[in-house]
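Students often ask what a holo structure prediction actually looks like on paper. The answer is less mysterious than it sounds. You provide the chain, you provide the ligand, and the output is a string of discrete structure tokens encoding the 3D arrangement of the protein together with pyridoxal-5'-phosphate.
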Amino acid sequence: MRIRAFAGRRGLSKSRYALKAGLTVNALRGMDSPDWNPTAETLRKLEEIIPGEFEADAFLPYARQSIDDDDVAAVADVLRGDFLTTGPAVKAFEDAVAARVGARFAVCCSSGTAALHLAALASGLGPGDRVVVPAVTFLATANAARFVGSEVVFADVDADSGLLTADSFTAALDQEPDVKAVFPVHLGGQPAPMEDIAAIAGKRGIAVIEDACHALGSTYELAGGGAAEVGACRHSLMAAFSFHPVKTIAMGEGGMVTTNDEAVCGRLMEARNHGMIHDADAFENADLAFEGGAANPWYYEMHRVGFNYRCSDIHAALGLSQMGKLERFVRRRRALVERYDRMLEPMAPLVRPLGRRPGTDPAWHLYVALIDFARAGISRGRLMESLRADGIGTQVHYIPVHQQPYYRRRYGPRTLPGADRYYARALSLPLFPAMSDGDVDRVVGALDRALGDAGAPSAKAEGMTGRVRP
Ligand SMILES: Cc1ncc(COP(=O)(O)O)c(C=O)c1O
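The corresponding structure tokens follow.
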């Protein structure tokens, strides 16, 4: 719990408050500032003597959707209309995403996981094929290969950014040359080196499918000048997005695949809807399909097993309404990230921002801080608990997927030092558009205090804690 303002309405001086609460005057330093950030213990003691006098701040989760009244109205309009699913909102949302990222086609579906599965199906991956997946990602990236029976070749990542690199991709191919696809992940919204990855993949006929679930709104510079939008598929066959509430825009559950390939788009749409085909030119059962040379009006065929990964118009209406706010959301995310970077500077080398790839302009889904827990003298779990007691939610993105028991059993233990080093230090701090600058200061202040309270011997000796300034 935090306090927004000093409520000295009882006319008590700071020293009287301190005396009554059994605190030192020092513990109340800064109390009259709106950014005052007392310890949980100080707050508890103050609340005992003056209950209700302090306005507590809300809990800050690590991520959160931003829903306005017009989002609610857009969903309500669909509920009052004729189509709850597969209606005009889905098409309008697909068109909006395709236009925004600059792809020819966008196929909306029920989740980011469904988007990755559809992309795996549409690229023709099947049993026994091999797919390179960076070890630091969400489970769904690797699982999408398994959904179609393909095997996962886990690649190492850059220890500071968590991203697949040209070197780690090449090392994975050296270990397993017969690879059919690679799923680069734009971790936290930061684009992976797509030009390099595409160049390596192109030489070997490897399909590139971007896991862009974190990266709607991210861009990267091109070696030859100009910039590419993630999702434009300049260096890939397809890009898969997620619109889960914690992502850049929210649909509740929802996803999208973008591509510039018309045939791929057709396969995505087919697999999304049970494998049903309505194109008379493709019908195989002429005896059932046609009467007097014309296709029967009810007729459809299925040539491959498909799924129900359709998106409802209810969800699409929310997605479309949120798309109108993407630029504002991204601007705010970038501003918050800049503030975190600045505020955390004095805490280096104990705490550092995620490693940055030059030439990228991420939409920042996450703010990952890299913390030297051993040097700080506190475990990640204890730090997370301490921040939680201060009203701050954190998360770890991600446990390297090759360490999951399912994958260990399947492929045996693997040593990926970059992934291990990244994972040992990663902690995602709160980041979402509704956060104020003061919220960032509050998070950094709490982090600084928790590390200082933990002893952080080297931090104290080097005067690193207690120096964070807006
Ligand atoms: C990198 C990554 N890929 C895929 C997914 C799956 O998306 P969804 O939760 O929409 O199924 C997520 C979601 O957390 C993700 O973070």
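The CA atoms of residues 157 and 165 lie 6 Å apart.
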